[in-house]
């Protein structure tokens, strides 16, 4: 094979690899954007309860008209954490399909556990998604009511994060599971 033919094959291969890379990145971007929509998030019937709660919150409808959707609060903006969140979120689809949470009753039975997983993740990220809109550094405490001003200042001094005080702001805070007596037959 001549040097020219070898070079030509290398250029064609590089072109195909480049095109494949562009298609791959476009596919990932399309998948992320498609699964970050309010319509996608609320398409599972077990999410109907969460959607109804969300529609009653200020994140859905407010005087300024600014709306935060599911992805704004549950999907990080930086690419690495966003991809990790999307991979981890595949388990929600899995549990819907296999029947772990496929009815509102089953979802409610697991809600305390699921909420705690979200709260733990939010604490670990210092409520990163909340802070994309609400950041202590951008708050004008003088414009807040006395109680909010005092609590936000104290939270900042203590290094608290949004979820430490604002659980149940969009979705109702679930009740912890009832303690069962270990001596009772059938108790877990």
Automatic annotation (TrEMBL):
Member of which family? Belongs to the NapC/NirT/NrfH family.
Q: What is this protein called?
A: Cytochrome c-type protein
- Where does the record place it? Cell membrane
Organism, by scientific name, is Imhoffiella purpurea
**What is the membrane topology listed in the Swiss-Prot or TrEMBL record?**
Single-pass membrane protein
One term of GO molecular function:
heme binding
- InterPro entries tied to this protein: Cytochrome_c-type_ET, Multihaem_cyt_sf, NapC/NirT/NrfH, NapC/NirT_cyt_c_N, NapC/NirT_cytc_sf
Question: Per UniProt, which keywords does this protein have?
Answer: Cell membrane, Electron transport, Heme, Iron, Membrane, Metal-binding, Transmembrane, Transmembrane helix, Transport
Pfam short name (any one):
Cytochrom_NNT
What residues does heme 1 bind to?
41, 44, 47, 92
PANTHER family for the chain:
CYTOCHROME C-TYPE PROTEIN, CYTOCHROME C-TYPE PROTEIN TORY
